[in-house]
Amino acid sequence: MNPQQISNFFEVIRSNKLISSKEISDILANSDLPEYSSKHIGHESPSSNAGKILYALGRSVSIKTALVCFAGPPGPNGLFCLSKGFSNKNGQVFALEGRRRYAFLNWLFLFKHKLTKSVTIHFKRIELPKDKPWFDKNIDVPTLDLFAVDIDDKGSENLYQFIISKYEPKLIFVENSGYRPNENNLDTLEYDYEDEELFKKSMEKTGQYQLLISRCDSKLKVPGRKFSLYIKKHYCIE
Fold first, then answer.
1. Cβ distance 163 to 197 under 8 Å?
2. What's the predicted TM-score (pTM) here?
3. pLDDT of residue 46
4. Cα 117 to Cα 136: distance, rounded to the nearest angstrom
5. CB-based contacts of 71: which residues, under 8 Å, 6+ apart?
6. Among 22, 154, 156, 233, which residue carries the largest CB count within 10 Å?
7. Rounded mean pLDDT of 3-12?
8. pLDDT at position 1, please?
9. Element (H, E) at 222
10. In Å, how far are 141, 176, 191 from 47, measured between CA atoms?
11. What mean pLDDT do residues 118-143 have?
């Protein structure tokens, strides 16, 4: 799969069909992301599978708007990889981050690599339902082509649900798909949300989204992490 094929890969998606392991391998093998030394074990870095897929998504001509929750520790992370993919086209990447230092240092890292043209990082601790009007003003797009979420932030499940309901993203990239830090901990609603509302409904063919990539090894420095990619059924071709 050459770079042009990768750029057009997410244009036509056949329904009821997972992206094959060979197609995933082709995307990973043909990534021309520069290598960076990851300073954080959780980074979706350019050398990770997750980072390469985010880069490929960013390069796709059909993906012009994206929202990242959350920017996370600064450096060569998932936001960087996605922004790198957006760098040669007109598009907009929004990122939420609730820690001021992380928001600033992420922006600084992207500025250093000349990637801030298409990226807006919002330092904001979202409180729902109070902050619903904030989205109308600051993420003023009718829909999102991509929602990239790292599901490891306890207590954020209402935010994910709100974003998916409001913007009806074409694609949802989920890092830490199926991950449970403590199987005996019942207070993990954000993980249950992905399991119940996305993964399980996709497998049962009862939800709005279907799986394209099912819990692929992210190849982060921290082991055992996986990502999934979902597509809204409306965009599938029968």
1. no
2. 0.91
3. 94
4. 21
5. 77, 79, 95, 96, 97, 102, 103, 106, 121
6. 156
7. 65
8. 65
9. none
10. 31, 17, 26
11. 94
